[in-house]
């Protein structure tokens, strides 16, 4: 199936847009008229540029306010169309989009519109052109694809077809199943867009908040399944009006767009096995069975500091790499790696970001198939030279240029610790603190990157996203989005900072980019862990006494529980399924920290209600010189 994207979807001038679109693997491009008008080259030059980039123009659009007009406006509209047909000839494209009229002059009436379109079809046919009619969700008389189809059906002309746009159908809650009765050859192009569910005026929503399929909340897959059932085999074309995308990096947005289409068609193919769809077959979405390890890059001094923090948390040094300056700390099922190599990616990560958790290992069923799926979805393969006692661990690039490694139980990958590490005894080990596994990994990024990473994770792994929540930092909002799987073996929290004054924003600024800002470990007994880590010398983050007064007022907790929470600076939350306890370490380095959590019953959240108080406490704990100044 051919892929296409409208020039409105990304930023830049026409050349920059086309280059980004071609580089991302699209076959075609919809030329939005204004992008052409604002460009200073002739239509023939543009046609040549498009062809030289290996693209074709799938559509020229939009032609507005055409159908149902009284005279003399009707004749003028046909004249206008003829001039645009001239232009299309020079641009070397054969398809024009006419969107349903919003003109107060339009008279309405299915037959009147059909007659106008038939006549336009006659004129188009003389030049070997085609016209597709699209119902805008806010069209004056036609705002539903079912009505647009009835008009096209009655126009009954081989050069007139319908254009379907997922936004217009789904934003109005129209059942996409109704598409299944349209003959596939009468659908001239399919435009795709998703959007977050926001209750607002349709036109404003459409022009500012559309996003890539899979990034929003609309059932775009159901829409596309219905389209596939018609036998439609033309291009699928992204038409994304989004304020943020218009100012983003054209390469990144175009790459996200291409990924969204590959992912969408993969879902459609899986959901409609009986329909022959011409798309690449990918290995299935990947089940992650746990975070196998987290790797830090550091220099020797900072590695000492980090090791001390880990020992206070109850970790012990259990392995030393056979040939590299790499140490392994363990507790429960948790593996923390500290890499102080002076070459390779770890070292460049250290030079760029300082001490940072730059790599994540995930346990999967088939590491090779995982990388195959990820790269088919546009992820960047990562490999570096491996020494004689080293395994080549399948890996891709993740957030902030970091790495995601994949381990499985097949073959040598399942024995990586034995193969690459020698077992050591830790003379400086402190008491075990009962930490069992990684509960979640929190990644901090600029707000504009969030959709990219949501799509990245969702398209590769079996994970769902929960609604985005706003977390209040004393200096601004941070958007938080959870990506998790059903069994809870992969839980990621993505925090998007809009202001560099927030704790998250400062972290990005100080560490030069997005990365893992905190790791949360799970315990089965928070107070046991709190006592053990305290005895080990860990400094917990101090929480304001006002928080505990409010906790009592809100939840009426038993007196002794409240006293213990207060004594150990443990935060508390509960939902209908269970309870949640959170204990934070003091800051480690440039805004990095550890969290310890206990979940009881089926508590599924992350203590979002507590985040503002935790953040305020972390800001109080910053050295004075590092306090944000009032802008
Ligand atoms: O917002 C608009 O005007 C507009 C124009 C053309 C389209 O294809 C569309 O979906 C919306
Ligand atoms: Mg459209």
From TrEMBL:
Binding-site residues, a divalent metal cation: 134, 165, 191, 239
Protein name per Swiss-Prot or TrEMBL: 3-dehydroshikimate dehydratase
Species assigned in the record: Devosia psychrophila
E.C. numbers: 4.2.1.118
Record's function text: Catalyzes the conversion of 3-dehydroshikimate to protocatechuate (3,4-dihydroxybenzoate), a common intermediate of quinate and shikimate degradation pathways.
Taxon lineage: Bacteria, Pseudomonadati, Pseudomonadota, Alphaproteobacteria, Hyphomicrobiales
Cofactors, names only: a divalent metal cation
GO molecular function, one term: dioxygenase activity
Family: Belongs to the bacterial two-domain DSD family.
Top-level division of the source organism's lineage: Bacteria
Pathway(s) it belongs to: Aromatic compound metabolism; 3,4-dihydroxybenzoate biosynthesis
């Amino acid at each position: 199936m051919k892929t296409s994207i409208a020039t409105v979807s990304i930023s830049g001038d026409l050349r920059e847009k086309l280059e980004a679109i071609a580089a991302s693997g699209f076959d075609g491009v919809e030329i939005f008229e204004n992008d052409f008008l604002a460009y200073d080259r002739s239509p023939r030059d543009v046609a040549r540029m498009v062809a030289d980039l290996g693209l074709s123009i799938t559509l020229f659009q939009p032609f507005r306010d055409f159908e149902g007009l009284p005279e003399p406006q009707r004749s003028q509209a046909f004249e206008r169309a003829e001039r645009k047909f001239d232009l299309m000839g020079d641009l070397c494209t054969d398809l024009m989009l006419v969107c349903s009229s919003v003109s107060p002059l339009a008279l309405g009436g299915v037959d009147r519109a059909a007659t106008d379109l038939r006549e336009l079809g006659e004129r188009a046919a003389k030049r070997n052109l085609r016209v597709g009619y699209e119902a805008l969700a806010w069209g004056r008389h036609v705002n539903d694809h079912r009505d647009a189809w009835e008009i096209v059906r009655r126009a009954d002309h081989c050069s007139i077809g319908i254009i379907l746009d997922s936004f217009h159908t789904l934003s109005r809650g129209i059942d996409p199943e109704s598409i299944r009765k349209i003959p596939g050859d009468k659908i001239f192009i399919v435009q795709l867009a998703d959007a977050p569910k926001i209750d607002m005026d349709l036109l404003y929503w459409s022009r500012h908040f559309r996003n890539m399929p899979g990034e929003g909340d609309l059932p775009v897959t159901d829409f596309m399944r219905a389209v596939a059932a018609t036998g439609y085999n033309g291009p699928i074309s992204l038409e994304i009006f989004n304020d943020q995308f218009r100012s983003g990096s054209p390469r990144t947005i175009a790459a996200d767009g291409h990924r969204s289409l590959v992912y969408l068609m993969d879902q459609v193919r899986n959901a409609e096995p009986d329909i022959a769809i011409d798309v690449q077959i990918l290995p299935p979405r990947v089940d992650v069975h746990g975070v196998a390890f987290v790797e830090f890059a550091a220099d020797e001094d900072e590695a000492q500091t980090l090791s001390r923090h880990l020992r206070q948390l109850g970790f012990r040094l259990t392995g030393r790499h056979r040939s590299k300056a790499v140490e392994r700390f363990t507790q429960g099922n948790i593996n923390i790696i500290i890499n102080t190599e002076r070459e390779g990616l770890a070292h460049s990560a250290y030079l760029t970001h300082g001490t940072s958790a730059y790599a994540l290992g995930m346990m999967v069923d088939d590491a090779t198939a995982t990388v195959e799926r990820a790269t088919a979805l546009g992820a960047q393969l990562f490999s570096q030279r491996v020494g004689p006692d080293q395994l080549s661990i399948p890996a891709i690039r993740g957030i902030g240029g970091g790495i995601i490694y994949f381990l499985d139980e097949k073959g040598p990958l399942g024995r990586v610790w034995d193969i690459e590490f020698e077992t050591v005894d830790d003379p400086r080990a402190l008491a075990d603190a009962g930490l069992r596994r990684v509960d979640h990994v929190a990644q901090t990024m600029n707000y504009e990157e969030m959709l990219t990473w949501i799509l990245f994770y969702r398209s590769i792994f079996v994970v769902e996203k929960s609604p985005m929540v706003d977390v209040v930092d004393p200096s601004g909002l941070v958007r938080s989005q959870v990506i998790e799987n059903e069994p809870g073996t992969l839980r990621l929290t993505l925090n998007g900072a809009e202001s560099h004054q927030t704790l998250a924003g400062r972290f990005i600024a100080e560490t030069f980019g997005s990365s893992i800002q905190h790791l949360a470990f799970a315990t089965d007994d928070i107070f046991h862990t709190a006592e053990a880590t305290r005895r080990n010398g860990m400094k917990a983050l101090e929480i304001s006494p006002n928080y505990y007064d409010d906790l009592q007022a809100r939840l009426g907790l038993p007196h002794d529980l409240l006293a213990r929470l207060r004594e150990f600076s443990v935060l508390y939350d509960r939902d209908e399924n269970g309870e949640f306890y959170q204990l934070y370490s003091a800051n480690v380095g440039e805004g990095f920290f550890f969290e310890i959590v206990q979940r009881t019953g089926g508590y599924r959240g992350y203590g979002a209600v507590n985040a503002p108080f935790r953040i305020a406490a972390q800001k109080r704990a910053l050295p004075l010189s590092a306090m944000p100044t009032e802008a």
